[in-house]
Write a structure and sequence with these properties.
CATH architecture of the largest domain: 3-Layer(aba) Sandwich
Oligomer: single chain
Number of helices: 11
CATH class of the largest domain: Alpha Beta
Number of strands: 13
Bound molecules: oxa(dethia)-CoA
Largest sheet: 5 strands, mixed
Structural class: alpha/beta
Radius of gyration: 19 Å
Strand order of the largest sheet: 1-7-6-4-5
Length: 330
């Protein structure tokens, strides 16, 4: 039966390293607080005018090379981002222009930290139906240009980093494939992590007063997000494994979204996984939302931690609220 598999990956993070001590120069925070609560030691932030599509373009060049493909082999670009280059059109169109492949389908998706998990599932569905053969799935973010660089925003600002990760998903008849995905959302809590303005429901969309109040910056009820994340991710991992006769012991590698090392340690404990079954890199990059899973997965592959035939599970939780998991026979 026709299915899909990842045939090439790439990732790109900006060169500029921003340490916790760097942040403490303009925000009331400390390396100790950030490391204890989140595990983050540093993150990468862009310099100057760089958008999510710019980072994705560099990552895509590497993925195409790894897959032995040309951009003209792609049928579709799915771009997961909560920090699009411009309000509209989508970053998928901007990346398409950079890749020089006019005419192929493009789709931006708005599923925040769960964007890559959703995107991979969408690519898999398009390929299974036979409508597409080669789909580029992108998670790309530039947060640093939209963060509150004052102490008012410190709970969020210290968390976020910039980066992009991409996967080329292609048709296969083999057993090594994306086996299944489970996708969820609960919009009841859409406002626990959000950027409120500019917004079409506000007229005008943005005023000097809103800027003054910082309503254009992300706001989060961190504790509520934390509480939901540590229960939803283990549950969705079981949900994606069990219909296929797998248990947590079959997992060769779990790549959880990189929002907080403490969250991932609790998810690991709750699932009863050993250290070598879970990959984390939040220490170096902070939370890159939609980009975090493809960056981590690609780094795990480059570190020799993912082998052909392995059972790989990706899981994410984030704003929306949204959560989900992909089960892959690598
Ligand atoms: O990827 C999207 C999904 N996002 C997440 O999964 C994030 C989930 N939430 C979290 O990771 C955690 O809730 C945070 C890391 C955001 C916060 O950790 P916390 O242990 O929940 O801290 P808190 O928000 O309850 O704040 C504790 C204290 C507060 O001070 P008081 O009221 O106790 O005096 C904060 O004002 O820490 C203070 N605080 C800070 N102090 C130093 C908040 N941010 C900072 C900071 N530096 N950056």
């Amino acid at each position: 039966m026709r299915g899909s598999r990842i045939v090439g990956m790439g990732h790109c993070v900006p060169d500029r390293v921003v340490t916790n001590d760097d942040l403490a120069e303009f925000i009331e925070t400390s390396n100790e607080w950030i490391v204890q609560r989140t595990g983050i030691e540093e993150r990468r932030w862009v310099e100057g005018n760089v958008g999510a599509a710019d980072l994705a373009f560099d990552a895509t060049k590497d993925a195409l090379a790894e897959a032995g493909m040309k951009a003209s082999d792609l049928d579709m670009i799915i771009f997961a981002t909560l920090s699009p280059d411009v309000t509209f059109p989508g970053s998928s169109c901007i990346l398409q222009k950079m890749l020089g492949v006019p005419g192929i389908a493009t789709l931006d998706i708005r599923n925040q930290c769960t964007g890559f998990v959703y995107g991979l599932s969408i690519a898999d569905q398009f390929i299974k139906t036979g409508m597409m053969n080669n789909v580029l799935v992108v998670g790309g973010e530039v947060h640093s240009s939209g963060l509150d660089m004052s102490t008012r925003g410190r709970d969020v600002t210290v968390l976020f980093g910039d980066g992009a990760g991409v996967a080329i998903v292609s048709a296969t008849d083999g057993e090594n494939r994306i086996i299944d995905s489970k996708l969820h959302a609960d919009g009841t809590h859409y406002d626990v992590l959000m950027v409120e303005a500019p917004a079409s429901r506000l007229n005008p969309r943005l005023t000097p007063e809103m800027l003054e109040e910082g309503r254009h910056y992300p706001k989060m009820d961190g504790r509520q997000v934390f509480r939901n994340a540590v229960t939803a991710m283990p549950a969705v991992v079981h949900e994606v494994l069990e219909p296929h006769g797998f248990t947590v012991e079959d997992i060769s590698m779990l790549i959880p979204h990189q929002a907080n090392l403490r969250i991932n340690q609790m998810v690991q404990r709750s699932l009863g996984l050993s250290d070598d079954q879970v990959f984390n890199n939040i220490m170096k990059y902070g939370n890159t939302t939609a980009a975090s899973i493809p960056i981590a997965l690609h780094e795990a592959i480059q570190a020799g931690k993912v082998h052909e035939g392995d059972v790989v599970v990706l899981t994410a939780f984030g704003a929306g609220l949204t959560w989900g998991a992909n089960l892959i026979r690598w």
